[in-house]
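Students often ask why inverse folding is considered easier than folding. One informal answer: many sequences map to the same fold, so there is more than one right answer. In these notes we will look at a single instance of the problem. The structure comes first.
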C-alpha cells in the first residue's frame, strides 16, 4: 500500500513540475539565445525573442554582448544608420581603393608583403603568376598591428561592424575582437560582394560588389563573347559561301 501511495505521489510530482516549467523555461531561454547568437543575425534573434515572449526578459544588449552577430546588407545598413555601428573595412588596400563604404575605417587584416627573403620572393612569384594575374589578388601577409590599432581607436563597448569582400576575413576578425573583450561586434555575412548598388554610399571607381574583381577574369566574359561571335560568323561563311571558303583554306594549307 505504501509503495502504491509512493508511486501515486511520484506520478503527481510530474504534472506539478510541468505546470511550473513555464518560469523554468523562461530562465533557460536567455542562455539558449546566447548560444545561438554566433549563428543568427540580430534580426533573427529579436524575432525569436518575440516568438518566445522573452523580449522583456532578454535585452538586446545582453544578446549582442554574448557573441558576434551575423548580418546581411540590409541589416548592416540599419545598424549603421540607427544604432550607431562603426564600419571597419579590413580588406587589403587594392580592394579598398577600388570601392569602399563612405566614412568606413580602413584597418586591413592583411597588408602587402614586401619581404625580400628568398622564400617570400619565390612565393610571390608563384602567387603573381596565377592568383595575381588571373584574379588580381594582392600578395599579402597578416597585419601584426591589426588588433592593436583597433584597441587604440575603439573602446570595448563601441559598436563595430566588420566588412570584407567575401565575409571570410571579417568573420575571423570579428572573432578576434570578441576574444579581446569587445562586446558589440557584428560582421557582414558573405561580404560586400552581396551589397546591391545604393544600399551604402560608396567611394571608388567600382561598385562595392565588384571590388574583388580584377585581373584577367575581368576580360573573360567580353573575350568569350568576341570569340563566340567570330566562330559563328566563320560557320555562317562556310555554309553560305563554300567555294570561297575552300579557296581561302587552300591558301593557308
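Output (designed amino acids):
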Amino acid at each position: 500500500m505504501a509503495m502504491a501511495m509512493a508511486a501515486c505521489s511520484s506520478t503527481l510530482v510530474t504534472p506539478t513540475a510541468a505546470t511550473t516549467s513555464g518560469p523554468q523555461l523562461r530562465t533557460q531561454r536567455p542562455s539558449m539565445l546566447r548560444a545561438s547568437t554566433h549563428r543568427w543575425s540580430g534580426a533573427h534573434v529579436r524575432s525569436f525573442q518575440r516568438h518566445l515572449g522573452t523580449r522583456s526578459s532578454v535585452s538586446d544588449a545582453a544578446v549582442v554582448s554574448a557573441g558576434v552577430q551575423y548580418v546581411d546588407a540590409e541589416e548592416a545598413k540599419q545598424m549603421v544608420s540607427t544604432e550607431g555601428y562603426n564600419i571597419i573595412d579590413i580588406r587589403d588596400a587594392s580592394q579598398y581603393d577600388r570601392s569602399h563604404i563612405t566614412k568606413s575605417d580602413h584597418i586591413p587584416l592583411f597588408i602587402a608583403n614586401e619581404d625580400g627573403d628568398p622564400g617570400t620572393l619565390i612565393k610571390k612569384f608563384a602567387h603573381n603568376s596565377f592568383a595575381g594575374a588571373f584574379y588580381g589578388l594582392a600578395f599579402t601577409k597578416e597585419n601584426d598591428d591589426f588588433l592593436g590599432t583597433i584597441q587604440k581607436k575603439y573602446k570595448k563597448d563601441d559598436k563595430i561592424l566588420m566588412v570584407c569582400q567575401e565575409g571570410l576575413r571579417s568573420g575571423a576578425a570579428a572573432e578576434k575582437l570578441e576574444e579581446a573583450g569587445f562586446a558589440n561586434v557584428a560582421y557582414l555575412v558573405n561580404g560586400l560582394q552581396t551589397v546591391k548598388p545604393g544600399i551604402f554610399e560608396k567611394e571608388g571607381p567600382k561598385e562595392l560588389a565588384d571590388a574583388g574583381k580584377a585581373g584577367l577574369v575581368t576580360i573573360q566574359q567580353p573575350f568569350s563573347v568576341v570569340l563566340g561571335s567570330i566562330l559563328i560568323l566563320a560557320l555562317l561563311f562556310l555554309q553560305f559561301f563554300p567555294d570561297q571558303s575552300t579557296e581561302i583554306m587552300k591558301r593557308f594549307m
